Amino acid sequence: MRIKFSIFLTMAMVSACGAGVETAQQGNPADRPNPLPMIPVGTKADSILVDKSDRTLILYKADKEIARYSNIRFGNAPEGHKRFEGDERTPEGNYTINGRNPGSSYHLSLRVSYPNASDRAYAQARGKSPGGDIFIHGQPNGRDGAPIASDWTDGCIALSNAEIQQIWKVVPDGVVIKIQP
């Protein structure tokens, strides 16, 4: 009797654990966070490439890829270069990381130097503001669960909170960031 009960109990535990694992894997893969890349301790990135069409953010050191983040999110109108305040586009071009805000409304944020002189001149010639406050950041503070699964920012680059925590540690101010279509 004890052997049968032990076998029954073991099978019930395996079924329950299996059901839990299966449940954790259900849903849209885009809603699940990506595993973090392994970056050697003390490594600092010297450039960033954001590819809007591939939805990737890649960190480089001496032209060698050190980390890749996929399924990143942009402004509500992700196609095209940011031209004006409120257009909800993410800029395209060459900029730098020129500040950081640990107290941001979004989990950590690294400031992108948009607008540059060309961006300002384009907007000014049309009597508009180019906007600003473009950041690489995590999810809205207080949000629990999976990262927002669609484009949702006003022009920023959004990642999971775990991803921005890792990026925050390896990207110093002054790093060049290229954002391509």
Q: Could you describe the 3D structure shown?
A:
- This protein has three helices and eight strands, in the order αβββββαββαβ.
- The chain has helices at 2-25, 117-125, 161-170, and strands at 47-51, 56-61, 64-70, 93-101, 109-112, 134-137, 157-158, 176-180.
- The protein has an eight-stranded mixed beta sheet.
Offer a quick outline of the entry.
By secondary structure, the chain is of the alpha+beta class. Helix content is 24%, strand content 23%.
Strand sequence of the main sheet, in spatial order? 3-2-1-8-4-5-6-7
Order of helices and strands: HEEEEEHEEHE
What oligomerization state is this entry in?
Answer: single chain
The structural class is alpha+beta
Indicate the low-confidence ranges by residue numbers.
1-32
User: Termini, distance in Å?
Assistant: 68 Å
Radius of gyration: 21 Å
Shape call: globular
